[in-house]
Every structure is written in C-alpha cells, then in structure tokens.
Amino acid sequence: MNIVNPSKKYENTCNLVYSCQYHVIFCPKYRRPVLLGKIKDRLKEIIAQKQSEYNYNIIEIEILSDHVHLLISVNPKIGIHSVVTKIKGSSSRILREEFPELKSKLPTLWTNSKFISTVGSVSLEIIKKYIEEQKNK
Known about the structure:
Helix content: 25-40%
Largest sheet: 4 strands, antiparallel
Shape: elongated
Order of helices and strands: EEEHHEEHHEH
Number of strands: 6
C-alpha cells in the first residue's frame, strides 16, 4: 500500500520531503471590523511578502473585515505556531505604523487567540492500515 498521494504537492529540502498544509484563522482584538480598504490590501501584501522570510507558502488567503483565513504550507521543522505568531506580530507592527487610526481603535491589533487546523488528503484509517501492514513486511 502506498500512502503518497500523486495529486498532492510535496515540498522538499535537502533532507526532508513534506506536505503540511494548515487552515489558520485569526481576528482583530474585540473582533472589530477594521480590515477594510487599504488596511485589508496592505495586510494581504505583508502576508505575501513575509513568505520567504518566515518559510511558508500561501495556498489561499481571504481577509474579511473582522478575521483572516489563511491556507498555508509550512515546513514541519519551522512549526505552524511559530509562523503564525511571526505573521501576526510583523503585520501588527507594520499596519499600526502605517495606519495610526488602528492605534486609537485598538490596544493591540490581534487577539492572542488563533485557530489552526491541519489539512490532509489521507484519512486516519488509511494511515492506521498502512502502519499495520508494515508489521507484516
């Protein structure tokens, strides 16, 4: 049994092949609807610009007035929590510098919370079966 999905995109480094995608959601403090117009556009630019610096790839991004949805691929050596923390920190600093009105509306741009969920193409049952089959080889 081969659990590698040929239609899935795999990334690699010199000693690691991986496919780790995550659905990430984070919100402005008090879920205020401040991600509009130029702020929304600039946030999208910032997140795109930080990809190589923070070692992630954007698969999909959607910014609504009161929350951000990201579908990103992250090297497991780096870690999703670290990447999201860096995205939130740098975007907050830059946006609050460029849009001073955010400072008067919110004590900090983002809540401390975030939602992170893995995105997989193979079910848990298939992986369990694959591992069980390895015992017989």
